[in-house]
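Please, structure for the following, as tokens.
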Amino acid sequence: MKATLKISGMTCAGCAHRVETALSKVPGVSSASVNLMTEHATVEYDPGEVQPGALVYAVEKTGYGATVIPAEEPGRAHADLRITGMTCAGCVRNVENALRKTPGVIAATVNLMTEQASVEYEPGATDPQTLIKAVQDSGYGASEIKAAAAEPEDVAETNLRRAWRRFVLAWALTLPLLVLMALHMSGLWMAPFQQVLEIVLAIPVLAVAGAATYRSAFKTAAHLSPNMDTLIAMGTLAAFITGPLAVAGLAVANYAGVAAMIMAFHLTGRYLEARARGRASQAIRKLLELGAKTARVERAGQLIEVPVDQIAVGDVMVIRPGEKIPADGVVESGESTVDESIATGESLPVDKAPGDEVLGATINKLGMLHVRATRVGRDTFLAQVIRLVQEAQSTKVPIQAFADRVTAVFVPIILLIALATFAAWALFPGVMRSVAVFAQPYLPWLDLSASNLTLAVFAAVAVLVISCPCAMGLATPTALMVGTGLGATRGILIRRGEAIQTIRSAKTICLDKTGTLTHGLPAVTGIFSVPPIEERDVLRLAGSVENASEHPIARAIADRARDERIPLAGVAAFEAAPGKGARARVGSDDVYVGKDQYLREAGIDISPVRTAVDTFQNDGKTTVLVARNGQVIAAIAVADTLKPGSPHAVHTLERMGRRVVMITGDNERTARAIAREAGISDVLANVLPGEKADAVKKLQAERGLVAMVGDGINDAAALAQADVGIAIGAGADVAIESSDITLVSGELTALVTAIRLSEATFNKIRQNLVWAFGYNVLAIPLAVLGLLHPLIAEAAMALSSINVVTNSLLLRRFR
């Protein structure tokens, strides 16, 4: 069997060779080849010996990122799992490894923020229950997420309530202990049996408020996959056990009260983190709230109100002014304007008339509409948007690969460092004290007169509780969650997180002409009439003849006449000449409309409009001639017109350092004319749809990373070939499956916003990772040297995670 992997993080031929070697060494792999340019690995393997998930794991062990590119096979299924018990990036890694090692799993990603796992698997080899068992065997809880309902369980809110209860309980029990310790340390009063009392008061804080922390710690440790809770559990237990030892007369300070306060600080951090997570995950909840709750439908001649989940395809919905449209559909009767800002990001309402499509969750503004439902439930545009945002929030960014490698070994390394710290202070106290003595005048909590055992416990506990894999685990998903949610509210659907990093680095932007730069439909752009004939007379005659035709150019002329409110007359003796034109009697006039060749064949002299014809054709426009009673009276220019925002968008992209290239199947003259109007200098003309992917590949070889913008259907191959595929289109018609990013509004100005939003999101991810790594690199050595009090260490650890989430929330200020 063959599998194709997308490899991230390769920068040279050496990288490609290392990945290729790693894959070739996997048992069951018969051949592996890696392409540095496309960043793809093609692997031939025996499915009886190895699964794609193991291939991904092998690549990641070499230090690179890998995802399986889905093959177009019927034997592929997807499952979303709700994961419980995760507290840090190490937990994410443990769950991912457990899933990827399960036979039949093709790919698996886990998101700490959403507490969800997204799994691709082969139905014949495994099933959701097997996946759940694999997660449970690794020490975590799991359940399958069924088809999303209109109001899914709010996990973030549930977690917040739990965190709040633990936070309140911890401090309610810790405050009396804190008062006793403060009175004792200040010399004001020492309670009878002070040391025993501290132990007694600490027990409920640890055993009751901190019970969940210990359960998580012991469960993951039992499965040889220690996490953040393991560090906290070991730190607090090590501190607590000094209490009984001190009471027993051992030369060690009583840190039982400190253990309780460490747990209280830890639970405070968990509560604040849960609050911040809830705010970061508001995007999905806000999208869900956009939908209507009920609908009025016509059934059996009666108008009844039903919940939206009971709407069936074909039902006629009645929407009054000011109401939300319950489901996607087509207007049967009525005229109105509809606010589609939730889908397109455009604030101006859109006119709707019979035959026009409308989207569920958009708002009817003026008149009453009767809409026949065409897509309901999970098939509606809003449901697709929600799924896309959820998928994007479950993906990873290539920059996260290094963080994943660190978190995979972080907790075991910290345990070793803590053990080494304890041993160093216990066995070589003179050396360790000589370093700490320089800081003693500035650190009031540093008491070098304490026993060697006390100082050893002090430093080891500080190492355990200050180390923070949480910040590294939250760095990427929090920013991704906010960024993708913000994009969805502005008509920018980011399907894969890695596109955020790639699009900011892509300096070449390829734009398809039809439907991307232009409206994709012909329109009248100019009329030359032979004096004394007026334009209105030309449009009345030509529009009346063309009104009987379904040809796009004919429709453009008839539509222009209607736009000018020119009444169209009935015609007689209509004759169509396919590919040439048409003739008919309009009143008493014999009218010809068509190409110059068509009129010449009818013996009509076209010299009065020859100059206008040449001018129109030099501008790349199609020219239609109009003759009345044997005399040519006008030349009409028809062309696919630029969207109003295209020139400004192209100019802005150039200012941002991007090189814009237009790719089109049009002839060179037409292509150059449109490009000149849009402000584009690089043009690839006469490119057939099947050749666009090759054109993109050539640009990649010449210029590096390339983003391709197209309609997502005709340009599917080019979108897939590009480093970032961007589909542009309106509403539910857009082919979102072909792209990494979808611009719902259909306007190129949204591309500028998408690039800026991607840059802002990536910058937040980078800032978060720098902070998370920098914090640990600075804090852990200070703890090893005994310069940090365990309470200060725990507070710093909690603030580190909170800082990462809060920094991500600043993305909401993006404009």
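Confidence is low (pLDDT under 50) at residues 147-153, 731-735. Residues 709 and 726 are 5 Å apart (CA to CA).
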